[in-house]
Amino acid sequence: MKTIQGGTGTLTRQSMAFVLAGGRGSRLEELTDRRAKPAVYFGGKSRIIDFALSNAVNSGIRRIGVATQYKAHSLIRHLQRGWNFFRAERNEMLDILPASQRVDEGHWYLGTADAVTQNIDIIESYGVNYIVVLAGDHVYKMDYGVMLAQHVDSGADVTVGCIEVPRMEATGFGVMHVDETARIIEFFEKPADPPAIPGNPDQALASMGIYVFDTGFLINLLRKDAADPASDHDFGRNLIPHIVKNGKAIAHKFSDSCVITGTEKHPYWRDVGTVDSFWRANIDLTDFEPELDIYSTDWPIWTYGEVTPPAKFIHDEADRRGSAVSSMVSGGCIISGSNVSESLLFTGVHCHSFSQLEKVVALPHCVINRNARLSNVVLDRGVIVPEGLVVGEDPEEDARHFRVTANGVTLVTQKMIDALDS
Questions:
Q1: Which residue positions form the known binding site for alpha-D-glucose 1-phosphate?
Q2: Which residues, in sequence order, are CB contacts of 55 under 8 Å at separation 6+?
Q3: Between 73-82 and 49-59, two packed helices, what is the crossing angle to 10 degrees?
Q4: Reaction(s) catalyzed by this protein (predicted)?
Q5: Whole-model pTM?
Q6: What does the buried/exposed string (b/e) look like for 216-235 if buried means 16 or more CB atoms within 10 Å of the residue's CB?
Q7: In the beta sheet, which residues pair with residue 272?
Q8: pLDDT in tens, 53-62
Q9: Annotated binding-site ranges
Q10: Within 13 Å of residue 393, how many CA atoms lie on the same side as its CB?
Q11: pLDDT tens-digit profile of 315-371?
């Protein structure tokens, strides 16, 4: 595990991060109807992409490209507002790279590898020795400098970031079969019987979608892939299996470079790719000792610092007391005679008198009107909950109007609310 100290700064200064942020994330259902998955809100004031970008900056990587595609407006606006502190005169830059038919008017980004291929000229202009390819839709804290050091020391063609998971839980991942030296000898996509880690039969190595390459090697490989009409132009499906078969691919364990701060006890990585996992990861932040520490200033999660007034709690009567217990309440929130428990309220949420919220994730600028009762709920941005609405107590009734997951979490959008009166 990584403690906060230097030692890999030279490598990170010679590197760029290329963040793949164009995916929809369809398993998040209506949460990605208006925004790409990396732009989905997380943790009270951040977006999911802030974790990959913060890891890069905190690691010392100050040249970053972000490839966008699906419904990118809110993501681009967030990057412009919250990530505009890079200074070109210090050789820092953050380039937003929308799919724009730069290579061929006949297609946009065809796959994760093609997104990089279409920006080779920009990458070459950076003049860097190493490329760190990142998925922009995971929640974790990691020092990429440690992974870069392993890549250089091992002489690998590619180093693949991997997380250790219980073996039979790895069936939904790309899984690395490695030898005793961490060399990847086979790559399996969502195998029914995942290979175990040598010496650890109950664990498997699942890909995190993080790759380190020497720049020249990657560019040559991408150009060959672009010329192959049979390729999907995807890192996981094409490039990584090709290198495993024909070159040297090394696995890097997340536990070697994860950043541990504050109350954290174990490496933390989440793919918040479903409504259930999104709700669970946000609610977990309200725990007394959460598994993910977002309070530490040693490894800050940078984001857009929206100017808001402090949260306010008003009314102090027996049955009308503004209170929040085991909850996170962001700036601009007003808890007016409402009871909030084990919930996470994003910026500008207003809860009116006699309403009750339990295990609710409310995205920015929601309004919960009087006498509403919500439990195990995700409210999309700007939802106005009608007076007296009850959600989370009758799954069958909820399913008639809202989206109820297999684990009993209810997703509510304004469109669903508007349909109640139709």
A1: 109, 174, 189-190, 207
A2: 134, 140, 141, 142, 143, 144, 259
A3: 30
A4: alpha-D-glucose 1-phosphate + ATP + H(+) = ADP-alpha-D-glucose + diphosphate
A5: 0.94
A6: ebbbebbeebbeeeebbbbb
A7: none
A8: 999 999 999 9
A9: 109, 174, 189-190, 207
A10: 9
A11: 999 889 999 999 999 999 999 999 999 999 999 999 999 999 999 999 999 999 999
